[in-house]
Amino acid sequence: MPRRVTRQETEQVQACPVPEIDLSRVAEVLEEVDSRAGLITVLQRLQAIYGYLPEVVVDEVSRRSGVAASRIYGIITFYAQFTTEPSGRYKISVCQGTACHVAGAPLIIDAFEEAIGVTCGCTSEDGLFTLEGVNCVGACALAPVVRVGEDETHGRMTPDAARDLVADLRTREVEE
Predict the structure, then answer these.
(1) Domain 90-175 annotated CATH 3.10.310.10
(2) N or C: which end of the chain has fewer CB within 10 A?
(3) How far apart are CA 96 and CA 99, in angstroms?
(4) Mean pLDDT of all residues in the chain?
(5) How far is CA 114 from CA 11, 44, 89, 108, in A?
């Protein structure tokens, strides 16, 4: 029986862009907080600075503090407040449930990828946008549906409306 080829297998997979990390901030935080007694506080402050805890930051904390990276990762993975993945200021979730898929969700994702300049599942280099596909947002009557963060839901999305939404969010960012 022939194997079904998916879209991802036929396209070249593009890695998510990795932003430049200024490690001097790690030293500043470690000077302020005792890493052995306040490792959670150190990680909270670093995540507030970088928006997430990248591998190079964890390695630098380990190197400077003498705390094993495995112990640091144990804390990061135990507490839900920590993340090792970058997330943009505007998290755009495109529903890929059956109703949304049939109504054009793949075209919506393509339009967002083009407008933002990243592939689905990645965060833009400027840190403004994270684009993700989600299983279902529970608004099938409005398919295809896009959510921006937890507060905005956009129904009956079109590729043009997706590009306009990105432009509006960029404008909103400039105004704030």
Answers:
(1) no
(2) N
(3) 8
(4) 89
(5) 15, 34, 18, 10
